[in-house]
Design brief:
Layout (H helix, E strand, L loop, with lengths): L6 E5 L11 H9 L2 E4 L2 H10 L6 E3 L5 H14 L3 E4 L12 H9 L3 E5 L4 H7 L8 E6 L4 H11 L5 E6 L4 H11 L5 E6 L7 E6 H10 L8 E5 L13 H13 L2 H12 L3 H13 L1
Parallel strand pairs: 1-4, 1-5, 2-3, 2-4, 6-7
Antiparallel strand pairs: 7-10, 8-9, 8-10
Helix pairs in contact: 3-4, 6-7, 7-8, 9-10, 9-11, 10-11
The chain binds S-adenosylmethionine.
S-adenosylmethionine binds next to helix 5, strand 7, strand 8 and strand 10.
């Protein structure tokens, strides 16, 4: 790495409460040659609040590939740059990935200045297991894609987290309630660090009711955390008795009907019965 290169600082900024910024972040925003910001007007409010007199240029999702090439050239000339997004940590469902990748590939030192991040703030106050978790970013936008998405995660045993907007929070919970069991625990973390911060931990059925019934619960920004599925090992395979019933039914009716009836009679999971039916059919 050339010592003549400038440094790229990835600076986390507040997700609501302006006091949530580190001393180091403020110093960095003051000292860099300029700031690459998702929205220059937005960052200006933060700069004004802290009396930071520095210039910013736009780096948003519509220009970031092209703009990043120019920014890396500036870094290679020896200028230092702070990368910020509108809120929280850049790159986390925010612009910045192309710039950081190009900078690293070019041998530029990339320095994280850690701070707020909505998903981490939500996890820290959720009271759900966080030893392992999966961050999903934003959900798909159509109902059918969302249901498919939930179905794929139905049996995942670890905590998962996603971001959602006020326009889609109710629809997202409605779709989730069609796929996941009603008693699955979820946490809705709304407006974290802001005036109307609300962090509710309850089961899916109740959460849906709360959001549907309360207009305020559909406003603002949301992080949703879902408890992982609890795995009962006895549910991972069919018992001999369950398989026997499935075989008998398959001799009399279609796979679809046999699976539905076997699920009804034995209480086994449809997914397992369906897989077993396909295996039996292939033999
Ligand atoms: N980079 C940001 C971070 O570190 O959290 C996330 C940016 S992403 C474009 C914006 C989404 O993050 C919002 O739609 C919402 O889901 C979540 N979010 C951001 N601020 C939030 C807050 N104060 N409370 C709850 N969710 C928030």
């Amino acid at each position: 790495m050339s010592t003549k290169y400038g440094e790229l600082y990835v600076v986390a900024t507040p997700i609501g409460n302006l006091a949530d910024i580190s001393f180091r972040a403020i110093e960095t925003l003051k000292q860099v040659d300029f700031i690459a910001a998702e929205d220059t007007r937005h960052i200006q409010m933060l700069l004004n609040h802290y009396g930071i007199h520095n210039k910013s240029i736009a780096l948003h999702q519509h220009n970031e590939e092209k703009a990043s090439v120019g920014l890396v050239a500036k870094l290679q000339e020896g200028l230092s740059i702070a990368l910020v997004s509108d809120a929280g940590t850049p790159l986390l469902s925010d612009p910045g990935m192309p710039l950081v990748k190009m900078a690293k590939d070019a041998g530029v030192r990339v320095v994280p200045i850690p701070g707020p991040c909505a998903l981490i703030a939500a996890l820290s106050a959720a009271g759900l297991p966080v030893t392992q978790f999966v961050f999903e970013g934003f959900l798909p936008r159509t109902s059918s894609a969302r249901k498919a998405f939930f179905n794929e995660r139905l049996e995942r045993p670890i905590t998962w987290v996603f971001y959602e907007s006020s326009h889609r929070i109710l629809a997202a919970l409605q779709d989730m309630a069609e796929v996941l069991p009603q008693n699955r625990l979820i946490v809705i973390a709304r407006e974290i660090t802001k005036l109307h911060e609300t962090i509710i931990k309850t089961n899916l059925g109740h959460a849906l009711q709360l959001v549907a019934d309360d207009a305020n619960m559909k406003k603002g920004e949301f992080v949703v955390i879902v408890e992982g599925a609890s795995i009962d090992k006895s549910e991972l395979a069919l018992t001999a008795e369950q398989e026997k019933i499935l075989k008998i039914l398959m001799a009399e009716c279609s796979i679809k009907t046999a699976v539905a009836m076997a699920a009804e009679i034995t209480g086994a999971r449809k997914k397992l019965l369906y897989q077993a039916a396909l295996d039996l059919h292939a033999d």
